[in-house]
TrEMBL record:
Record carries keyword Transferase: yes
Pfam families: tRNA_U5-meth_tr
Comp. bias (Basic and acidic residues): 465-474
Keyword Transmembrane helix assigned: no
Name under which the protein is recorded: tRNA (Uracil-5-)-methyltransferase
Length: 474
């Protein structure tokens, strides 16, 4: 009866979210959890990223694979990539742009984090994902014992958890989801989500599990979640180490907060952005949607000063730490929406969240934007016209295309990089470097902002994050 109830619950949740296809590796929104930890915000975060991906598939490239991806043929990697690039070329055929620079992913073991539903059968359990039946259109569960797109460490943890969890009633009782987060540096987090309150007995059992998994990752953190409850054994974060153009960068990655899932592609994206920003050392950079400071820490040495904004409290805190531990001391971090900053920039108005920053003294030449799937809001889109250079990181080619059409009279597309962030899915990550056309006029800061939004057929509108306060890295 419990299993039937759990199954119906999962089906109802997915139905309410309107999922038509379940691809489990789209980009997470960077929404932070509420002050009171809860399973619901975490589940909402995961389902929103899946919804965002499923809504773009219908108009995206025809790359059709099982959502579960329990087996892949690595020899077909180039074929699936070619399909996506061909679709992208068709989408951008009305814009002048240089040839796409293709950045390939590893075909296997590239994904550093993943999540699984848990199916119970008596005292045993299994991990599951869901896929769409091509004949009936109905969603069906797929047992997942190994997940070849996930990191080798993720797969080792899966094997160990499938062995250890059924042996402990305290750990398996009403467990409905398992999330894994790993790093190239060999660290890991295991998050266990429950439909019940967790107590001392659970903590004791989880500590024993942590010891059992200790040979696989160091350190390894076990986190238990239920509605209104979060228990961490030691910590709820890992530290990733990336080597970019010979420089070692260290990043704190917080549980349930956005981080780049494909570490290999993340290295390529950072290297590309650094090369695009060369020669800007005497000028300033404005970065909107900075997340945990992934680009901020890597690009800051290329500029005199960086002003970065982000709305997620946890992301801003992580960005501040990431800048500090990478020796970056020329970054001002403001916790605010891009629309708020745009208003302050254009009107000269005072914002409490910009206290300590004199915008008049800023000499911005380059703008870096890494927006959500919905693309740039109208105010920020208009803001682009005031910069000489724009680095645009996009997780949605359709909204990127709409935004570039809107600014084509002001900018030339100098570089277009394609990053295969999620092989075997229709998803395409892009990096575009724009330079102002000779003689292109600059709008006065007091000019009105057109009440026109870019066309958006691919992204949900319910993933915006709330902003409060200010964090400063100095």
């Amino acid at each position: 009866r419990h299993q039937q109830t759990h199954t119906l619950h999962c089906m109802l949740v997915r139905a309410l979210h309107g999922l038509r296809s379940t691809l489990p590796w789209p980009r997470l929104s960077a929404a932070g959890l509420s002050a009171r930890p809860s399973v619901r915000p975490l589940a909402r975060l995961c389902r929103q990223e899946t919804l965002a991906m499923s809504q773009s598939v219908e108009s995206g490239p025809a790359v059709h694979y099982s959502a579960a991806l329990t087996s892949i043929d690595a020899s077909q990697y180039e074929a699936q990539l070619a399909t996506k690039v061909a679709w992208l070329e068709t989408l951008f055929q009305d814009l002048e742009h240089p040839p796409f620079a293709i950045h390939r992913s590893e075909p296997e073991n590239f994904r550093m984090r993943t999540e699984f539903d848990v199916w119970h059968s008596g005292d045993s359990l299994e991990f599951q994902m869901f896929e769409k039946d091509p004949k009936t259109g109905e969603r069906r569960p797929v047992r997942v014992d190994q997940f070849p797109v996930a990191s080798k460490l993720c797969n080792s943890l899966m094997t160990a958890l499938l062995r250890e969890l059924p042996l402990c009633q305290e750990l398996r009782s009403k467990l409905f989801q398992v999330n894994l987060h790993t790093t190239l540096s060999g660290q890991a987090m295991v998050t266990l989500l429950y439909h019940r309150k967790l107590g001392d007995a659970w903590q004791e059992a989880a500590q024993k599990l942590r010891v059992c998994l200790g040979d696989l990752a160091s350190p390894i953190h076990i986190i238990g979640r239920s509605r209104g409850q979060k228990i961490c054994l030691d910590a709820d974060e890992v530290e990733e180490t990336l080597t970019v153009e010979g420089q070692t960068l260290r990043y704190v990655q917080v549980e349930a907060n956005f981080s780049q899932p494909n570490a290999g592609i993340s290295v390529q994206m950072l290297a590309w952005a650094r090369r695009a920003a060369q020669g800007s050392g005497a000028r300033d950079l404005l970065e909107l949607y900075c997340g945990n400071g992934n680009f901020t820490a890597a690009l800051a040495p290329r500029f005199r000063r960086v002003v970065a904004t982000e709305v997620s409290k946890r992301s801003v805190a992580a960005a501040r730490r990431n800048c500090a531990q990478n020796g970056v001391n020329n970054v001002f971090l403001a916790r605010m929406r891009s629309e708020e900053f745009t208003e302050a920039w254009r009107t000269g108005g005072k914002k409490e969240r910009l206290k300590g920053l004199d915008l008049v003294e800023c000499d911005f030449q380059t703008l870096l934007v890494d927006p959500p799937r919905a693309g740039l809001d109208p105010d920020t889109l208009q803001l682009l016209h005031e910069f000489d250079n724009v680095i645009y990181i996009s997780c949605n080619p359709e909204t990127l295309h709409a935004n570039l059409v809107a600014v084509k009279d002001t900018f030339d597309i100098v570089e277009y990089a394609v990053f295969d962030q999620f092989p075997w899915t229709p998803h395409i990550e892009s990096g575009v470097y724009l330079q102002r056309k000779a003689g292109a006029p600059r709008p006065p800061k007091s000019s009105s902002i057109p009440d026109v939004a870019p066309e958006n057929t691919a992204a949900p509108q319910g993933v915006k994050r709330k902003a409060e306060g200010i964090e400063v890295a100095s």
